[in-house]
Write a structure and sequence with these properties.
Layout lengths: L5 E2 L6 E2 L2 H4 L4 E4 L10 H8 L3 E4 L3 H6 L5 E3 L5 H13 L1 H16 L3 H18 L8 H7 L10 E2 L6 E2 L7
Parallel strand pairs: 3-4, 4-5
Antiparallel strand pairs: 1-2, 6-7
Length: 169
């Protein structure tokens, strides 16, 4: 287990490193209202291919669509407990949710996003018949291909590791 976990100054939050990410069976985000816009922690759980149970804020609705996760009403702890118990007790369900988040994560890596932007810029350039974006071929050539799941690569700009999969398969 982690030997250097860190609490926030108010003692309400505990920070973990990637050592815990692979040990998670079900990731839970019980936000209190729809005003929660995004969740970096949920994105991290997706990158690690985890089963997720969440309240239905906009980002969760998008990420957990198509069976990739389970949504429960806001402020309904009984429903949250039922869904977490259901996922924990059904290996096939959990495996299906994990496969869905791993699949989604492949398109969310920095390399995959860069390739999508390059494709958009190429189409825009072609539509403009070469009048704009003349350097797009140089940019496209400089972008590495997306990483496969299970690989880790340090981010060139930040030096941070990009989590792209781990845990049970």
């Amino acid at each position: 287990m982690e030997t250097n976990a860190h609490f926030s100054p108010d003692g309400r939050m505990l920070g973990f490193n990637a050592q815990y990410d692979g040990a998670t069976d079900v990731y839970v985000t019980p936000y209190l209202g729809v005003d929660q816009v995004t969740s970096g922690a949920m994105a991290r759980a997706v990158f690690f291919g985890k089963a997720i149970v969440s309240t239905p804020f906009l980002y969760a609705i998008e990420l957990l669509a198509n069976g990739r996760g389970r949504l429960v009403p806001f402020k309904d702890s009984a429903a949250l407990a039922r869904e977490v118990a259901a996922v924990l007790s059904d290996d096939a369900l959990r495996a299906s949710m994990e496969a869905g988040t791993r699949s989604l994560a492949r398109g969310m890596s920095w390399g995959a996003v860069a390739h999508k932007y390059a494709a958009i810029f190429s189409r825009a350039s072609a539509a403009a018949k070469g009048r704009v974006f003349t350097a797009i071929s140089t940019v496209t050539a400089a972008v590495p291909p997306p990483q496969r799941m299970g690989q880790r690569k340090s981010g060139a700009a930040t030096g941070a590791a990009e989590p792209v999969g781990s845990g049970r398969r």
